[in-house]
């Protein structure tokens, strides 16, 4: 009997007990489906995290001014101004490892336009901010150096602000809004950007020149100091580590900090945060895939159990086949192919289930659907190995039956 005839015989044998075959393969179906779904979900989550961090800007460092430490009361970095405008100019001009730097001074304010009002975030900054934070323009223009130098009362608004004040689809360029009772003319509207990793709406913001912000919107003028934080974008060829080192050296020199003195600023690397998130996601995906792999092994044990039952039930059939000329190798091959067919069919069904589950979850969480062909092939290959591995013992047992005893079996 050749391979094709043996395969057809195995399929017919499986089809004789469809429900039992399905239940036997259920462990493989669940295992393969879980592996494919978990890996796809992990890849989708990782891509989503990367997309969110890319929207914050690449090669990005955050420079925070000093911390308060007075009368036993201590505050975190950012609570005490220590970075000046001259520091910012030095960072921009003296560090080749830095591509761009921009301050972010923020406040919350109620803004008015005609009879509409909305409470939103107002940011005082410079034109480089839109480069380092990856903002693009949808209508009008972004802020420029002339706006900053002259302290112009102009504003660039996000689309959420436009929708709340004027309605969706409105072109706000040329409109006047009042921020803390100060009139600002809208010169541009940013393209939609979405949400930050913390869920903040990037489009619910108004951007004004840093000089205008300090003069018009801050209750207390801090003169030469920059409040808030500074975004520093490292040059891609240098990397964030080099830029961080150069930045630290420059500021320590400018602030005349002794060798054993503590920094009056703090630098945080957003790339490390993104990497940590990625590693956490990968670890979780590996854990879930490992759990799913256990299901495959359990499915293999189920196949071996049913195949042993099948050998017992078909003992007389085996005896007849051997009596008419079948060799032990033919019997072994028949049962081995039955086990392999069962596990492969279970693997194919599991692949379909896994892709379906991944699709549903991707739609639910708004993640990209990433089902990798190599993962499907590996899962199917593993299910085939499970079938062969756990089907070998029952097949050997069947092939070693004594034909006389098998024919006498009732």
From TrEMBL:
It is found in: Cell membrane. Its main location: membrane. One of its GO terms (molecular function) is transmembrane transporter activity. Signal peptide: none annotated. The chain crosses the membrane at residues 21-41, 286-311, 331-355, 375-393. Residues 290-403 form the ABC3 transporter permease C-terminal domain. It comes from the Bacteria. Residues 21-249 form the MacB-like periplasmic core domain. GO terms for cellular component: plasma membrane. It is a multi-pass membrane protein. Keywords: ATP-binding, Cell membrane, Membrane, Nucleotide-binding, Transmembrane, Transmembrane helix. Belongs to the ABC-4 integral membrane protein family. PANTHER family: ABC TRANSPORTER PERMEASE YTRF, MEMBRANE COMPONENT OF TRANSPORTER-RELATED. This is Macrolide export ATP-binding/permease MacB.
């Amino acid at each position: 009997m050749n391979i094709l005839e043996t395969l057809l015989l195995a399929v017919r044998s499986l089809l004789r007990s469809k429900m039992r075959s399905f239940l036997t393969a259920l462990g493989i179906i669940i295992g393969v489906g879980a592996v494919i779904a978990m890996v796809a979900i992990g890849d989708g989550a990782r891509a989503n995290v990367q997309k969110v961090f890319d929207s914050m800007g690449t090669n990005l460092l955050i420079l925070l001014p000093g911390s308060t430490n007075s009368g036993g009361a201590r505050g975190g970095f950012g609570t005490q101004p220590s970075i000046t405008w001259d520091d910012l100019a030095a960072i921009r001009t003296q560090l080749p490892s830095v591509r761009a730097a921009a301050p972010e001074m923020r406040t919350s304010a109620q803004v008015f336009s005609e009879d509409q009002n909305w409470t939103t975030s107002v940011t005082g900054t410079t034109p480089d901010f839109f480069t380092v934070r990856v903002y693009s323009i949808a209508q009008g223009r972004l802020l420029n150096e002339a706006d900053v130098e002259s302290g112009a009362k102009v504003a660039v608004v996000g689309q959420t602000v436009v929708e709340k004040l004027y309605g969706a689809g409105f072109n706000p360029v040329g409109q006047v809004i009042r921020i803390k009772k100060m009139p600002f003319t809208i010169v541009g509207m940013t393209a939609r950007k979405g949400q930050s990793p913390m869920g903040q709406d990037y489009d619910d913001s108004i951007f004004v020149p840093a000089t205008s912000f300090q003069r018009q919107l801050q209750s207390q003028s801090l003169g030469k100091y920059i409040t808030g934080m500074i975004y520093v974008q490292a040059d891609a060829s240098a990397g964030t580590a080099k830029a961080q080192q150069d930045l630290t050296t420059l500021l320590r020199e400018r602030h005349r900090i002794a060798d054993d003195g503590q920094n009056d600023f703090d630098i945080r690397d957003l790339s490390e945060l993104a990497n940590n998130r990625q590693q956490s996601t990968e670890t979780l995906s590996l854990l879930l895939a490992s759990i799913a792999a256990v299901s495959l092994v359990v499915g293999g044990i189920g196949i071996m159990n049913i195949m042993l039952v099948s050998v017992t039930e078909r003992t007389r059939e085996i005896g007849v086949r051997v009596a008419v000329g079948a060799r032990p190798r033919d019997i072994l091959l028949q049962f081995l192919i039955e086990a392999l067919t069962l596990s492969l069919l279970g693997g194919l069904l599991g692949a379909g289930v896994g892709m379906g589950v991944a699709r549903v979850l991707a739609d639910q969480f708004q993640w990209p659907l990433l089902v990798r062909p190599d993962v499907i092939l590996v899962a199917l290959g593993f299910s085939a190995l499970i079938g062969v591995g756990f089907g070998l013992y029952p097949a050997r047992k069947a092939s070693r039956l004594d034909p006389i005893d098998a024919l006498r079996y009732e």
